[in-house]
Amino acid sequence: QVQLVESGGGLVQAGGSLRLSCTASGGTFSNYRAAWFRQAPGKEREFVAAIPRIGSNTLYADSVKGRFTISRDNAKTTLFLQMNSLKPEDTAVYYCAAKQLSMTILSSLERAYDIWGQGTQVTVSS
Question: What is the rounded distance in angstroms from the CA atom of residue 37 to the CA atom of residue 16?
Answer without folding.
Answer: 20
